[in-house]
Amino acid sequence: MVMEAPAKGGFRFDLCRRNAMLEKQGAHPPKFLKTGTTIVGLIYKDGVILGADTRATEGSIVADKNCEKIHKLAPNIFCCGAGTAADTENVTDMVSSQLELHRYATGRNSRVVTALTMLKSHLFRYQGHVSAALVLGGYDVTGPHLHAVYPHGSTDTLPFATMGSGSLAAMAMFESRYKEDMTKEEGMELVAAAICSGIFNDLGSGSNVDLCIITKDGLEFLRNYKQPNPRTYVSKRGYSFGKGHTAILSTKIIPLREQVTVVEGDAMVEE
Amino acid sequence: MASDTKGESKFFVFQSLQTSNLKSLFVDSSSAATSFGTTLAKSPLSHTQYPYVTGSSVLGIKYKDGILIAADCGGSYGSTLRYKSVERLKSVGKFSVIGGSGEISDFQQIMRYLDELTLNDRMWDDGNSIGPKEVHNYLCRVMYNRRNKFDPLWNTLILGGVKKGVKYLGMVSMIGVHFRENHVASGFGNHLARPIFRDEWKEELTLEEGILLLEKCFRVLLYRDRSAVNKIQIANVTEEGTTISKPYALQTHWEYKAFHNPTQGVEGSW
Q1: Crossing angle for the helix pair B189-200 and A167-177, to the nearest 10 degrees
Q2: Residue among A1, A24, A168 whose CB faces B192 most closely
Q3: Does the structure show a pLDDT above 80 at B35?
Q4: Assign residue A10 a region: left if phi > 0, alpha if psi is -120 to 50, beta otherwise?
Q5: Which of A88, A108, A143, A156 sits most deeply, having the most CB atoms within 10 A of its CB?
Q6: Can you tell me which residues form the catalytic site (chain A) (predicted)?
Q7: Which of A131-135, B40-44, B200-204 is predicted least confidently?
Q8: Which backbone phi and psi does A232 adopt, to 5 degrees?
Q9: Which is the catalytic residue, given A37, A38, A92, A162?
Q10: Cβ B268–A113 below 8 Å, yes or no?
Q11: Quick check: B203 pLDDT over 60?
Q12: Which one of B11, B42, B46, B191 would you mutate to disrupt binding with A, by most A Cβ within 10 Å of its Cβ?
């Protein structure tokens, strides 16, 4: 009597109630809050090693396959940046300029804690709206230092640090394999393994591994130290198409000279 | 004839129930306000929206002779670590072991369903015993059907077993997503343990290597997951049967020089 047989055609509005109910209960499509990056830093026996992946994302599109996330703040201080690319670039550029002026004023090499305080006070002033999460590392007169700086202005001083959406994957590598006083090769291998873990297990990170090693004697910037995502298929036939590749089906020539008459006039005079 | 009249009277009862429900909706003033102008009637029933007492991650791997599944013994009530002796690994039938993370009460309900399943299987008395593949399939259907009714069992279940020499390891989530793999993890283990498994798991791990791998992942979880407890159990399923170990604690390392005096040489930072 009341029971209806299921409709055989036409529109069905059964799901409208469900959708309205879900919306009322606050269901919304997933938001991506963490930023697409894996950046890490590690203190080893003689200094600091910083590592970063090279993918820049715009929503779910890869905007730049091979961007540089390790920025120079001073000849002995480098900073990896995660978060909004404009924010990390501009904040690091600004602090880099301030540090250079500071070097001229004091006549000494910059210290990591100076960069840290400048970054931290700037970010705190903007209450987290400058979305820059940084891993700051360097070697100054007091030794090697590594800090993690968060967008709201808090900092951590650590022997190993990871930031970005791939930070958990990278931290899993660090927590299981870190030991104190590693050699340079062990440190580089562990940093590369942590970045690769982020590249392969996190969707927001990808492409290549950049490394930066800072010691008392100087620095080594290894751009694209590892390239675990090469372009594996390249067409052997190449992409040049010489004459004869395309068949000509018909030809029609319209001489323009007959339709356009060019009248020579006087030269233009400057008023 | 008799059946027809019976059917009709059932209908009648059903109808009157329906109308009485609607009446109660209109009488209830708060819901009357919402249901009057809209086509949507506010339901007097509401289902589970969030879990209360939860267990954290469960990890599982295949090794040479069978399956190893590990879970800790913690039950958190929000951000309180309320229960520290919860058994989240249970054996099912002769061949399988199940580990559950998420709402503990729903996991206990799932155990009751599985007890009923294995009991019914015994009652057939045909010499066959329900294996891990069948249990996994049953769990998938239960979880998916509950999800379709918007009343999920808030768990991620990891099921492992060995029957007739074939190793089986699978996972079912609370919305019914299910798959089989060589290594599975639930909860925070997805983010912290899976990268380690993908890097270090290999075919033909021995029992010692498998336990070391699980302990390594659990140590990382102890350091980095706030709901993890340092009291873990490992279940081992082989052709011979299932054994679930007694709970034990892992060694953790906190003696890094950098942790003793982190701001030495960087006065002004913290």
Answers
A1: 60
A2: A168
A3: no
A4: left
A5: A88
A6: 37
A7: B40-44
A8: -80, -30
A9: A37
A10: yes
A11: yes
A12: B191
Q: Indicate whether B79 pLDDT > 80.
A: yes
Which among B111, B168, B165 has a CA at the least distance from the CA of B139? B111
Instruction: State whether residue A197 sits within 8 Å of chain B by CB.
Output: yes
Q: Under a CB-based contact definition with an 8 Å cutoff, are residues A113 and B266 in contact?
A: yes
Are the C-beta atoms of B186 and B101 separated by less than 8 Å?
yes
pLDDT in tens, A46-71: 999 999 999 988 888 888 889 999 99
B171 closest CA partner among B182, B162, B184, B161: B184
A192 shares contact with chain B (CB less than 8 Å): no
**Residue B260, both tokens:** 């003793």
Q: How far apart are CA B2 and CA B61, in angstroms?
A: 59
DSSP 3-state of B81: strand
Q: Which residues of B fall within a CB distance of 8 Å from A20?
A: 40
**Cβ–Cβ contact A229 with B under 8 A:** no
- Check if A200 contacts B (Cβ < 8 Å): yes
Instruction: Identify the sign of the CA torsion B130, B132, B138, B142.
Output: positive
Contacts of A155 in chain B (CB under 8 A): 269-270
B48 is catalytic: yes
Q: How high is the mean pLDDT of chain B?
A: 85
3-state secondary structure chain A: CCCCCCCCCCCCCHHHHHHHHHHHCCCCCCCCCCCCCCEEEEECCCEEEEEECCCEEECCEEEECCCCCEEEEECCEEEEEEECHHHHHHHHHHHHHHHHHHHHHHCCCCCHHHHHHHHHHHHHHCCCCCCEEEEEEEEECCEEEEEEECCCCCEEECCEEEECCCHHHHHHHHHHHCCCCCCHHHHHHHHHHHHHHHHHHCCCCCCCEEEEEEECCEEEEEEEEECCCCCCCCCCCCCCCCCCCCCCCCCCCCCCCCCCCCCCCCCCCCC
Query: Among residues A199, A197, A195, which one has the least CA distance to residue A229?
Result: A199
- Cβ of B194 within 8 Å of Cβ of A21? The answer is no
Name the maximum alpha-carbon separation found in chain B. Answer: 96
